[in-house]
Design goal:
Blueprint lengths: L5 E7 L16 E2 L2 E2 H9 L5 E8 L17 E5 L4 H13 L7 E4 L9 H11 L6 E6 L4 E5 L2 E6 L5 E10 H13 L7 H7 L5 E4 L11 H15 L1
Parallel strand pairs: 1-4, 1-6, 4-5, 7-11
Antiparallel strand pairs: 2-3, 6-10, 7-10, 8-9
Helix pairs in contact: 2-4, 4-5
The structure holds cytidine-5'-triphosphate and ligand LQXTBERG.
Length: about 230
């Protein structure tokens, strides 16, 4: 059997409401390059890469101006109302193009600080897992359950990890799990949620604190510092 290929799927159809910016955060300038350009330039170094599918908003008029948009391995599609809908749209696009044993690696456009070395070590570790895996980092702070700006209680964090992306799974297994979960109205905020709901075992690979998701306005400056530190290391 041919070596399984990895299809990269990038949800990039968000409006970035928490960023409080006119420009969708995936197009904000980060050290002189749009966030999405940084993210795609890393993802194009995925091993056994079959192609990169980018789920865009229906009115997106910015993607075509990116240099990386001219890379023949990069294919834009139209995403959906929620992140999970954008991912499912990408999976449905791939259903007609991928081989049955291929993998899909999903990575947020809003996570431009993923390093190539972490991407490679993640792919190597997860490819040996039958049902896929995710990057995650253990929670380092004491966690509080808060209601009306007061502490309800302290939450036991001994088994709590913060999920990141990439998240990588057998393509058709994830497609079936995500389609079923969304049909059942299961809340899905990452791909692992659907795989867990469908009863699959998902491996956790230690991620990096620097693999942040640009979500709030202050995250852009932090991402710039992280990228500069990566360049200097
Ligand atoms: N309908 C959507 C919503 C989000 N995303 C993508 O999913 C990733 C993570 O989502 P998030 O950080 O929530 O982005 P936004 O939805 O844009 O942010 P907000 O929730 O603040 O509006 C982002 O790369 C975003 O572009 C997507 O492809 N399709
Ligand atoms: C997928 C994710 O980045 C894992 O932490 C996160 O769930 C995305 O959440 P968002 O609210 O769609 O940004």
């Amino acid at each position: 059997m041919n070596t399984p290929k990895i299809w990269v799927l990038v949800p990039a159809a968000g409006t970035g409401s928490r960023m409080q910016s006119e420009t969708p955060k995936q197009y904000l300038s980060l050290n002189g390059q749009p966030v999405l350009e940084h993210t795609l330039n890393v993802l194009l170094q995925t091993p056994q890469l079959a192609g990169v599918i980018v789920a865009l908003g229906p009115e997106d008029e910015r993607f075509g101006s990116l240099a990386v948009a001219r890379d023949p391995r990069v294919q834009p599609i139209v995403g959906g109302r929620e992140r999970a809908d954008s991912v499912l749209a990408g999976l449905r696009y791939l259903a007609k193009r991928a081989a049955s044993h291929d993998w899909v690696l999903v990575h947020d456009a809003a996570r431009p600080c993923l390093t190539v070395s972490l991407l490679h070590s993640f792919c190597e570790k997860v490819a040996s897992e039958t049902e896929g895996g995710i990057l995650a980092v253990p929670v380092a702070d004491t966690l509080k359950w808060v209601e009306q700006s007061t502490i309800g209680r302290t939450v036991d964090r001994s088994h709590l990890w913060a999920a990141q992306t990439p998240q990588m799974f057998p393509l058709f297994t994830l497609t079936q799990a995500l389609d079923a979960a969304l049909t059942e109205g299961v809340p899905v905020t990452d791909e692992a949620s659907a795989m867990e709901w469908a009863g699959h075992t998902v491996a956790v690979v230690p991620g990096a604190p620097g693999n942040i998701k640009i979500t709030q306005p202050q995250d852009l400056a932090l991402a710039a510092l992280i990228l500069r530190a990566q360049e200097e290391s």
